[in-house]
Design brief:
globular, 11 helices, two-stranded parallel sheet
């Protein structure tokens, strides 16, 4: 199977591309290499992708003509769309980038998949679509009509757009609701990355919600394992026994999380232990558009593809900290 992965130089795209390449898939990666965070980090990831003989092209999803030319030339069997403007807080500062990347860019992907009769599309959604969910565990059956920020709204919009194309054009489509992904080669804008950097440099860290928020931190290898399993599972397993009225549409969302929410204060303690230094905490109230708790109900993906997260934060954080030391020091 030939797979085109967008956002291939991003955190998840980088790991997924290498994993699938090592498991005998033919991979073609694209990325716009924007400057939202450290471009040198993206370029280093790209170097490793090229070392693995993964084909790559620099293109923005908003460049419809160039994007379409790549699809026509490469003729992928499947598309995994991971390209997006990420970040809840950045959406309060630069909202237009979310319109361009997450809505217009994703529309271009859907249009090309329709025109080229792509067999399967997987795309990155987010746990943020659940908004201020009062359930202890966030289930795919929960209503997700009240996003608390523009990033979440853009991801919810992706799900609605994708469903409509799956319905109209018979594209087998899977939405991937990721829960707080972390690990080596991660994004510098994420809290765990900033915490680690500041603890090493003995700079105070801003801790929102006074450290009492909970997150379902999911190690990157578990995320990749979940995507890989969904990619390779037979369609009858993926789309069977759907509870909604549109059970004949080949579309489904899946949570991919660790299923063990961790209090932020404990998470910081684990980083402190791995770094070997104590953090200087600047406790602050919760930010606008943020949520107190995320918690993945992963019973659906477990039942469909036997997904089981393996890496706890006590194992995963030291792996990240070791990578951070080797890369930056």
């Amino acid at each position: 199977m030939k797979i085109l992965i967008t956002g291939a130089a991003g955190f998840i795209g980088f790991h997924l591309s290498r994993f699938l390449k090592n498991n005998n898939f033919e991979i073609f990666g694209i990325d716009n290499l924007n400057s939202y965070y450290d471009l040198d980090l993206k370029k280093y990831r790209l170097k490793l992708l090229k070392d693995d003989n993964i084909k790559f092209a620099t293109v923005d999803l908003n460049n419809f003509a160039k994007l379409r030319d790549i699809f026509l030339r490469e003729k992928p069997d499947c598309v995994i769309n991971l390209a997006a403007q990420a970040g809840v807080r950045f959406s309060l500062i630069e909202p237009f980038q979310y319109l361009e990347s997450n809505l217009i860019g994703f529309f271009h992907i859907l249009e090309i998949c329709k025109d080229m009769k792509i067999k399967k599309l997987l795309f990155a959604s987010s746990s943020s679509v659940y908004g201020k969910n009062s359930n202890y565990k966030f289930s795919e059956n929960n209503i997700t009509d009240e996003p608390l920020n523009l990033y979440a709204a853009s991801k919810k919009s992706n799900e609605l757009m994708a469903f409509s194309y799956a319905n109209l054009y018979n594209i087998s489509t899977i939405g991937l609701r990721f829960f707080t992904v972390y690990g080596p080669w991660g994004r510098p804008d994420m809290a765990y990355f900033k915490f680690t950097k500041n603890i090493f440099e003995e700079i105070p860290i801003d801790v929102y919600g006074e450290g009492n928020m909970y997150r379902d931190f999911t190690y990157i290898d578990d995320i990749v394992d979940g995507i890989s399993k969904l990619l390779q599972a037979p369609e009858e397993k993926i789309f069977s026994k759907q509870s909604n009225a549109n059970h004949n549409v080949s579309y489904r969302n899946f949570n991919i999380g660790n299923n063990k929410p961790i209090k932020l204060k404990h998470f910081i303690n684990v980083i402190e232990k791995a770094v070997g230094k104590n953090a200087k905490l600047n406790l602050m109230p919760i930010q606008k558009g943020d949520v107190i708790r995320t918690s993945a109900d992963i019973s659906l993906i477990q039942s469909v593809v036997s997904f089981k997260p393996k890496i706890s934060i006590e194992e995963g954080i030291p792996k990240f900290v070791n990578w951070y030391k080797n890369f930056y020091y």
